[in-house]
């Protein structure tokens, strides 16, 4: 799989909000501009982990060895030391709640032998899901100028997780976890601040800015929203909440008055 030649010079501020049932794009800004995913990358690592669990290549209680390479990842990690093990269940929750880079690396090395080989697998899967502008090179989202995505592609990935792995998707609602007697809180304030929120992932690097992909439902409608390249956590959180607030409540508009809107094809759950 060739690596994209285009590199991002600076984080692009972008967003998109999509109706999960219809694929209708309700609002978007710079949605197809290339930028860096940061830890949103772990959404694909988790998608492939769920796929491996369903196919029998992994089991929830299987032990994953933390290599020296995995243990060297910063900043968020279990930090249990090279040569020790975590379960697949711990790895999944670690990625969801803590954005644990050592957990993501352990999964990648187990499934593909190396981070770079797993990056190829991630990119192939991304393109199969219609994420045609995305290239993954590592499982964690740690900085790599060749690892790029768009807000549209991240929305597609969020929709795919909800559609393809609805039971596993429920884990994204986890606000914390206990790991070997220690309690940890998650990094996603949208889960706490927005009624009906149940996922998905935040991310930050200096190059990427402050990112989020998230979903919420009011019982009748589910929306998936993305903000990339925000200037701060507060700016990101305010922007994503405002996006949802503008569109979550049902609006009665006749077909003749409704604006023409784009579709994300093939993403209906």
TrEMBL record:
One of its GO terms (biological process) is regulation of cell shape. It comes from the Bacteria. Substrate binds at residue 201. The keyword Hydrolase applies. Keywords: Carboxypeptidase, Cell shape, Cell wall biogenesis/degradation, Hydrolase, Peptidoglycan synthesis, Protease, Signal. Residues 8-231 form the Peptidase S11 D-alanyl-D-alanine carboxypeptidase A N-terminal domain. The active site is at residues 39, 42, 99. Pfam families: Peptidase_S11. The keyword Signal applies. GO terms for molecular function: serine-type D-Ala-D-Ala carboxypeptidase activity. Belongs to the peptidase S11 family. This is D-alanyl-D-alanine carboxypeptidase. It comes from Rhizobium glycinendophyticum.
């Amino acid at each position: 799989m060739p690596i994209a030649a285009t590199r991002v010079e600076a984080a692009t501020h972008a967003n998109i909000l999509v109706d999960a049932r219809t694929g209708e794009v309700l609002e978007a800004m710079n949605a197809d501009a290339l930028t860096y995913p940061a830890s949103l990358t772990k959404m694909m690592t988790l998608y492939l982990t769920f796929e491996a669990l369903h196919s029998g290549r992994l089991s929830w209680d299987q032990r994953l060895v933390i290599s020296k390479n995995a243990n060297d990842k910063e900043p968020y990690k279990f930090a249990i030391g090279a040569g020790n093990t975590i379960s697949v269940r711990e790895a999944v929750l670690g990625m969801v709640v803590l954005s644990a880079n050592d957990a993501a690396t352990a999964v990648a090395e187990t499934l593909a032998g190396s981070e770079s080989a797993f990056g190829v697998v991630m990119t192939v899967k991304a393109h199969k899901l219609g994420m045609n502008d995305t290239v993954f090179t590592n499982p964690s989202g740690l900085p790599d100028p060749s690892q790029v995505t768009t807000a549209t592609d991240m929305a597609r990935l969020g929709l795919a997780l909800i559609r393809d792995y609805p039971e596993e998707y429920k884990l994204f609602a986890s606000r914390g976890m206990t790991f070997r007697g220690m309690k940890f809180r998650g990094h996603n304030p949208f889960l706490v601040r927005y009624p009906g929120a149940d996922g998905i992932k935040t991310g930050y690097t200096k190059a990427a800015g402050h990112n989020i992909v998230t979903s919420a439902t009011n019982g009748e409608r589910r929306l998936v929203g993305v903000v990339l390249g925000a200037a701060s956590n507060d700016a990101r959180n305010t922007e994503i909440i405002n996006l949802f607030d503008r569109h979550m409540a049902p609006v009665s508009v006749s077909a003749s008055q409704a604006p023409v809107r784009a579709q994300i094809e093939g993403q209906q759950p």
